[in-house]
Specification:
Length: 444
């Protein structure tokens, strides 16, 4: 049984950030800044409430007779209680023989073209501990992108406008950045677990390091760009944020309406249609909050029974990073053109280039992760380099005239050589997909 280290890290970040936010809001109030006091306190309390609701929902405490646990959640002590319960399960596991044990079957990630099926006994204690890990992972994502990310943006904006970086504010900003990066890391791991649920996935330390560098550079650059733009063009900040947020919020719903799929009914049996709609809106709300600051590794698909797309869409990822790079460059250009006197002693061209370079470095570490450090890279139908080449060819292909594209499509359809090649390639891909299972049966 694995040590619940992720539960402990999530709790430490949650408690330290909440405590620092409350102390900083008190300092703003004593200094006579009521607006900063209210905003800091709001972005501290909102994720706390959402984290309590998520923990109660995942553990289904409403349908169980646990009034003390519900009271502690109302007192904002739910994560502390859940952490104590998780460690109690971990240290008391194996002392008493469990009456019911299930057997799970997982496939190993193929090595040298071979894969074996692993059978593992899972008891009640391990299943409960897994639920605690899953609940804290989702709570960390909510805390990161609905609380820490707006909080970091606010505190950096205050520091820029006041031209002062105090020790309390800098400490709080470091905690917020660590919370966001950890939430993004948990989001990546969660996406891998969901997409490759049939395999025994083990993430190596090199993969964690690549994700940490990728996410920290991406998020820090994005927050800095938003703060610089909002410090000189405050009027346009609100429309920019709304356009980004509602664009990502309605994107899964547009795909769902275009697919003409039935309304999801398997979220929770006790939920009515209105309750299911509220849960789906909260899910897309979180999805939009993540994409505001970084690429969400988990893609929401409302037409799927699991509500998560299990396919690896390289083209969508490439389009996101290209558009985000152009958007960051445009916002920095607007900041450079309309900068005020508060940037008089700042080398603005050098800062402009450094921010763009940091974002390119984030993309570089992302490519390194998917090309070399991804735990399931051997299960990819195509590598990320091949996908980027195909995306670039697709963009060049769409840039041609409509007549030429129609003629080329007709030529491809009529050509018998191309049809034979596509049939052969599809057979090859099917054989590769079946090879792990066939090798496992032959070994048995």
């Amino acid at each position: 049984m694995k040590f619940p280290g992720s539960v402990l890290i999530s709790l430490v970040l949650f408690l330290s950030e909440t405590t620092a936010a409350v102390c900083l809001s008190v300092l703003y109030r004593t200094d006579g800044d009521p607006m900063w006091h209210r905003l800091t306190l709001f972005f501290a309390l909102l994720p706390c409430v959402l984290v309590q609701l998520s923990l109660v929902f995942i553990h289904r405490d409403v349908t169980r007779d646990r009034p003390l646990v519900l009271l502690l959640h109302l007192l904002q002590l739910g994560p502390l209680v859940r952490c104590v319960e998780a460690f109690y399960i971990y240290f008391h596991a194996g002392r008493v023989e469990e009456p019911y044990v299930t057997i799970t079957k997982k496939w190993q990630v193929p090595k040298d073209g071979y894969s074996e099926e692993i059978e593992k006994e899972v008891g009640q204690a391990e299943r409960k501990l897994f639920m605690h890990r899953s609940a804290f992972s989702r709570a960390s994502v909510i805390q990161a992108f609905l609380g820490s990310a707006p909080q970091l943006t606010l505190q950096l904006y205050i520091s820029v406008m006041e031209q002062e970086l105090t020790a309390a504010r800098s400490t709080f900003m470091i905690l917020s950045l660590l919370s966001i990066v950890y939430g993004a890391l948990r989001c990546n791991i969660l996406a891998i677990r969901i997409k490759y649920d049939d395999y025994d996935v083990r993430v190596k330390p090199a993969a964690y390091l690549c994700i940490f560098l990728w996410r920290s550079l991406e998020i820090a650059t994005r927050v800095t760009v938003l703060v610089l733009f909002s410090s000189v063009l405050r009027i346009w900040t609100f429309p920019l944020v709304l356009a980004n947020f509602f664009g990502f919020f309605f994107f899964p719903w547009i795909l769902f309406w275009r697919s003409e799929s039935p309304f999801p009914q398997n979220i929770e049996k006790e939920f009515s249609r209105v309750g299911t709609t509220i849960v789906l809106c909260l899910l897309t709300f979180l999805y939009a909050g993540i994409n505001m600051f970084c690429w969400s590794a988990v893609q929401v698909e409302l037409s799927d029974p699991d509500l998560i797309s299990k396919s690896q869409n390289w083209c969508r990822m490439a389009v996101y990073y290209v558009l985000r790079l152009f958007e960051n460059a445009f916002l920095l250009m607007m900041w450079y053109l309309y900068k005020t006197d508060i940037y008089l002693y700042v080398c603005t061209p050098l800062l402009f280039l450094r921010l763009l370079l940091c974002y390119c470095m984030a993309v570089f570490f992302m490519l390194v992760f998917y090309q070399f450090c991804h735990p399931c890279k051997k299960l990819f139908s195509s590598s990320i380099t091949e996908a980027l080449l195909s995306c670039s060819k697709f963009l060049c292909f769409t840039g041609k005239s409509p007549k030429s594209t129609v003629l080329t499509e007709k030529a491809v359809v009529k050509s018998p050589e191309n049809t034979d090649e596509t049939r052969g390639s599809s057979k090859t891909i099917d054989s590769l997909k079946r090879s792990p299972h066939q090798s496992a049966s032959s070994n048995a």
